[in-house]
Predict the structure.
Amino acid sequence: MFNLEKIVNLMIRRGFVFQSAEIYGGLSGFYDFGHLGVLIKNNIKKLWLDFILKEENIFLVETSIVNPSSVFYASGHLENFYDLLVECKNCHTRFRYDHYLKGEYGKVKKDNDKYFCPLCDGILTEPKKFNLMFKTYVGSTEETSNEAFLRPETAQGIFINFENYLKKYRLKLPFGIAQIGKAFRNEITPKNFIFRIREFEQMEIEFFIHPNDHFEWVEYWTKRSLEWYINDLGLKKENLFVYSQSKEELAHYSIKTNDIYYKFPFGEDEIQGIAHRGNYDLSAHIKFSGKDLSYYDESSKEKIIPYVIEPSWGVERLFLALICDAYDEDEINNEKRIVLRLSPKISPIKIAILPLLSNKEKLIKKAKEIYNYFKNYYLVYYDDSGSIGRRYRRQDEIGTPFCLTIDFQSLEDDTFTIRDRDSTQQIRIHFNDLLDYFKEKI
Ligand code: ATP
């Protein structure tokens, strides 16, 4: 696999991703996405919606990013959603303690019970708790009663709407409520490009089940997620694996968690968690809101509090995994080329329409006709600047699976050349067969 630096270079150079607030020096842990990046993110989200809505009993919701502190008091995030941090007494750099111990900042240096800074060898403080939530105030006064938080996961918005779904949608177990939305975590050390950031998007399902048949659902969602990665997104099977968290690693709400890991160039790490949250959240919201969030089970004629299995995906981590998986370099006619071998479903642009020569009116006219026709079906891109080889290369770098070239023969017999990104092979196809060809491939 290629190193992260090469991947970041390509992403920045071709405008997929920008450092946020760059002209003011940037803000660490925040990124903006350019046209090509947004298109990829949208493709991921669309494929995810296609996937989950094919499952039975999944319903969508979109909830607020800002929630009152009462929500996070109840959910336990105010007390428990922290990382341990240590700070160097000399250079004042802060490190996430568990990552420090794993050697992620460099070699761990220890003498008796003291740890030392990986940067300057200064003594590190004792670990202290650092809550990861961003606080704000709602309204015009900064009083404790107006305190609110940016959500650190989209999940709580789902739990606090549970009653609405039972009543308005009359749902029967098992069912899932799903949402795509931003989440915010004031990570101690954002790193690895868009892997660990402070503002990111999650795609989450809270899948409510009867407490009797619980553990099988963790395995169900683990299996379905892996199938989705491999069959629909085109991730390489050998770069994915499942890691079952140990008891010590479990979050404060979890009974069991399977993480799906991707083998990134900087090491293997989590792209998705599948957490068994038991009835932790619903019980907490029943207790603190005073509302009855129980479910009436018709077969046993009893009120129960459902359990919940939560598959949770991070859009940016998946984005990065897809790019790392697809990035390749090879040589064509003794010239080095960078190519993103993305699945056509993920590629931002599906077909590039290229007149062979850029100074021939007739070719340009025909190419624009073709462009205007195909734009009704796919996201296509027209380009007539520079040599054809250079134009192919520009498309290879952004993962465009097909280039359609218009040459003089096209004017005579309505046939066109399709160049395949991965093999670089070219075939000639009559206009009447083009759409079917693309429909099969894209
Ligand atoms: P980590 O251990 O890496 O901090 P986590 O276990 O805290 O992650 P979860 O709370 O399980 O993460 O969040 C679910 C998903 O949300 C993760 O699998 C990941 O894809 C995404 N995610 C979480 N934190 C971040 C972040 N700081 N930047 C980008 N994506 C994130």
Q: What stands out?
A: The chain has a mean pLDDT of 96. Residues 153, 185, 187, 196-197, 200, 202, 270-273, 312-314, 316-317 surround adenosine-5'-triphosphate (CB under 6 Å). Residues 4-79+147-323 form a domain with the BirA Bifunctional Protein; domain 2 fold (CATH 3.30.930.10). Residues 268 and 378 are 35 Å apart (CA to CA).
